[in-house]
Amino acid sequence: MVGSREKAAGGSGCVGGGGGGERRKYPILADDYELYEEIGQGVSAIVYRALCKPFGEIVAVKVLDFERTNSGLNNIMREAQTMNLIDQPNVVKGLCSFANNQTLWVVMPYMAGGSCLHIMKSAHPNGFEEAVIATVLREVLKGLEYLHHHGHIHRDVKAGNILVDSRGGVKLGDFGVSACLFESGDRQRARNTFVGTPCWMAPEVMEQLHGYDFKADIWSFGITALELAHGHAPFSKYPPMKVLLMTLQNAPPGLDYERDRKFSRHFKQMVAMCLVKEPSKRPTATKLLKQSFFKQARSSDYIARKLLEGLPGLGARYQALKEKDEHLLAQKKMPDGKKEEISQDEYKRGISSWNFDMDDLKSQASLATECEDAISSKDMDVSSFYDSDTNLQERTQDGPLFSGGFSMKYDTDVENDVMANDKSAVSSPEQSIYISRNASVSGAPNGVLVNGHVRKHSSMENCDLDFQEKDSDAIPISSFHERKFSFSSCSSDGFLSSRESSLSSKPHINIHNRDKGIGGALQVADEPSPESVPKALKSSVPNIDEHDDRSKPPLIQQRGRFKVTPGHVELDKAHPPGLQKCHSMQAISHLPALSIPSSAEAASSIIGGSFYLQLYNVLQTNMLQREQILHAMKQIYGSDFPSPVCMLSRSASPSSALSVDRSMLEAAQEKEKELLNEVLELQWRLLCSQDEVQRLKAKAAQI
Ligand SMILES: Nc1ncnc2c1ncn2[C@@H]1O[C@H](COP(=O)(O)OP(=O)(O)OP(=O)(O)O)[C@@H](O)[C@H]1O
Which of 95, 312, 406, 462 fits as disulfide partner to 107, beta carbons 3.0 to 4.6 Å? Predict the structure, then answer.
């Protein structure tokens, strides 16, 4: 009877270890299951508690909508089959899977505790205690060790995918994005479009410097450790574009020496070992399991007692969280809705996968540097913990992959929650921006080493703070709200919920916000003429018409997973949606046109992008410092501040002061132009040399 059903449904292997331990065949007809309440939702799937009628057994059924996945039907089926072959206590096994209309049903053991993410959201908003974390993570590592040993990469390790059963057993779930290391090259490449969730994603995966190998799982594991420790992943409040930028530019996150005082040195060490940007320096799962941190791990009973006791049933818990989020979402459905916050809602629900084109994202990210005016160390889940000098060295040497120089670490008491906070959050990001930038520009860290930790230089901090406190609104980039506006508009409409986005694919452009960016003190007057903007930069200058005409939908979509397209960027195509006009862009518009070759190879080169970004950072720092100085002068003397020359010579006539002022401004503008020209010149040379490399490669290939 089951056999004929199998044929009818075209289902995959259905041998499962049922409740009794004997291997039995699970039915593969939808009618044999009664779906109860929803217990989870992913990007492409809804998970239900269900009854497997013939066996009278409670199971979980994940219903995947083919239309909502990026992966082809074959891939999904194959993944489900892989899941069915898994046989390890720490990895959720697929009991069977089958197609039902436009959906794939994956039947799994029911994990009554739900995911660690949901447990945290319901009862431990600030994270778990260390012994719980050690126990959970040890189980996860065992699962990873098994997967890696069998040639699988999980690719989506995060608290939302760590499931707990009614007896406190911990399993790694969601094989949706897992990949097999031994797949043929073509298949591997094809799978590059499918890689997990930005906050947890290893930098080398973002950069596509290495293929996705199992060391990327170790990075995600480290991020998950932080997630369990704090109740949220580093950068979880931010939209993907910003996460990308932060992961690439900032020093790796970690446990903070001061803030995370309650956690042991062993825990901090373990996290630091995982979150090393250079993948080859990360330990294997097997090696990690030997870390002292895991000596405190306890039994599954302990987990059941600590995490599950007193918790409402999974369905009720899930429903409560969902209602809370829907309420929040409804509140945000206003004309100028703060879309970026929705990413946090998605995070709460455990959905944090995004689908967007990596190359476009990179071009957005580079421009976000302008729009965002740098990354604040306050935005980071910064780590200043280093076990030893060696560790410190290793981690600082890791450096950023995208832009040079952000190798400093601060141990300020930073929470990601900066976005949710008020006044202190307003000033604090900026105070560190300049410090980071200075570090980047000079290459010399403006920090002091205290007990193996790099601390922010206090005088710099004070200086910036003083400045901020005078008038936090005066420089728009200093303003929290402006920053938010700036970002929302930079990233366009990527922040609709998955449900929303599937309803409307129309690009949303918040025109209001566009002009609210970092206008700042740099008064560069004219509107750029389209012709005067260099090709590569032109694409970045927002233009309402461009937005309207754009045939491409917004690149950031919340439908499906984070998508890495292995293709190329064509500079002239790289037009990030919704970028607002930034002062630096306006300055650029004054430059003579310079055509940039749209060599796809060259443009897609990360190194090129990195170099360009570095140069751009230098330039930006210059501009920002200039703004700061102008602003400080304004602060002292009001809007009609006199020039220094005028100050020295009070007898000078107003008109001469004005002309001195003007000439200073002109000189500064000239300097800016020169710098920009230099940047463009360097970029041009870089692209030429890359073309040359390509040419030589082609020649070599012929030989
Ligand atoms: N076997 C299970 N038992 C109980 N709950 C489950 C089970 N499998 C999944 N869930 C719940 O459903 C949620 C979504 O499942 P899953 O992660 O597999 O979907 P997904 O579409 O792959 O999601 P994403 O890609 O966002 O991680 C999980 O976070 C978890 O809370």
Answer: 95
Q: Does residue 541 line the site of ligand 1, with CB under 6 A?
A: no
Q: What's the rounded Cα separation, in Å, for the pair 205 and 198?
A: 10
Quote the ligand 1 centre to 599 CA distance (angstroms). 42
Q: What is the pLDDT of residues 605-630, one digit of tens each?
A: 444 455 556 666 666 667 667 777 77
Q: Which residues pair with 152 in a beta bridge?
A: 180
510, 482 contact by CB (below 8 A): no
Which residues neighbour 590 within 8 Å (Cβ) at sequence distance 6 or greater? 524, 526, 528, 532, 669, 673
690 lines ligand 1 (CB under 6 A): no
195 lines ligand 1 (CB under 6 A): no
Which range in 197-201, 318-322, 358-362, 407-411 is most confidently predicted, on average pLDDT? 318-322
pTM, two decimals, is 0.53
Residue-level pLDDT at 639: 55
* Rounded CA separation 152/285 (Å): 13
Residue with the two structure tokens 């009609």: 640
Q: Is the CB of 27 under 6 A from ligand 1?
A: no
Give the dihedral sign, CA 190/191/194/198: negative
Residue 190 in contact with residue 173, Cβ under 8 Å?
Answer: no
Residue in 44, 47, 91 to alter for ligand 1 test, most ligand atoms within 8 A of Cβ: 47
Share of the chain above pLDDT 70, in %: 45
pLDDT, position 52: 97
- pLDDT of the residue at 447: 32
- Pairing status of strand 103-109 against strand 96-100: antiparallel
Nearest residue by C-alpha to atom 13 in ligand 1 = 40
Catalytic residue among 32, 156, 260, 464: 156
Model confidence at 309, pLDDT cuts 50, 70, 90, reads very high
Closest ligand 1 atom to 110 CA:
3
* DSSP bridge pairs for 456: 447
Q: What single string gives the DSSP state of each residue in 399-435? A: --SSSTT------S---GGGGT--HHHHHHHHHHHHH
* 14 CA from centroid of ligand 1 (Å): 20
CA dihedral sign, ordered 146, 149, 151, 156: positive
Beta-carbon count within 10 A of 181 CB? 15
Tell me the C-alpha distance between 59 and 106, whole Å.
10
Active site residue 156: yes
Residue 435 Cα to ligand 1 middle (Å) = 41
What is the rounded CA–CA span in Å between residue 472 and residue 478? 6
